[in-house]
Specification:
By secondary structure, the protein is an alpha+beta fold. It is built from five helices and five strands.
C-alpha cells in the first residue's frame, strides 16, 4: 500500500497569507476529529503571516510541521476552509454576522440572488432616506411632485 503524503508547510504556502495561522489550527483540529489523516513531524516551520505587537515590532510564529495524507478528504477540507474564509464577519448592531464572499456566492446561486435582492432594497432605502432628509431640511427647495414648474423670464432688464 502506497500513501501519498504532503507537508503542512506546503499546504500553508498555497493558502492566503492572512489565513495561514487559522489554516494550521483547522488542520490540527481536523486531525483530532479524524476527518483528515495527519501525523506530526519533529521539524518546525515559520508561518508567512507576521504578527504585529503593541510596541510596533513584528514576530513570525513557528509551528510543528505535519505529514498529511493527500486524498479526497483533504481536498474537501481545503475547499470548505476556503469557503469559510471567504465569508467576512461584519460587526454591527446586535453582534457580528457573516457576510458571504465571492467564492460562497459562486458555489450557491440562490445565495447570490438573495444577496442581490437585499442589496437593491438597501440602496432604494438609502435613496429614500436621503430624499426624506433633504425634504425636511430644505422644504422650499424640494419641489413636490404635484407642483407645477416655475416659468423663468429670460428677458434682460436695463
Amino acid at each position: 500500500m502506497n500513501i501519498e503524503l504532503k507537508r503542512l508547510s506546503d499546504y500553508v504556502r498555497e493558502v492566503d497569507v492572512v489565513h495561514s495561522d487559522r489554516f494550521v489550527v483547522a488542520v490540527r483540529s481536523a486531525a483530532v476529529t479524524g476527518s483528515v489523516l495527519a501525523a506530526e513531524l519533529p521539524e518546525k516551520f515559520e508561518l508567512p503571516k507576521e504578527i504585529r505587537k503593541r510596541d510596533g515590532s513584528t514576530v513570525k510564529k513557528t509551528v510543528f510541521d505535519m505529514a498529511i495524507a493527500v486524498g479526497p478528504e483533504m481536498d474537501k477540507f481545503i475547499l470548505d476552509f476556503n469557503l469559510e474564509m471567504s465569508e467576512r464577519r461584519v460587526r454591527g448592531v446586535g453582534g457580528s454576522r457573516l457576510r458571504p464572499g465571492m467564492e460562497a456566492m459562486l458555489a450557491d446561486e440562490k445565495l447570490f440572488f438573495e444577496r442581490a435582492r437585499l442589496t437593491g432594497e438597501k440602496i432604494r432605502a438609502n435613496e429614500n432616506k436621503g430624499r426624506n432628509m433633504a425634504a425636511k431640511r430644505f422644504p422650499s427647495e424640494t419641489p413636490s411632485p404635484a407642483a407645477e414648474p416655475v416659468k423663468v423670464s429670460r428677458k434682460r432688464t436695463k
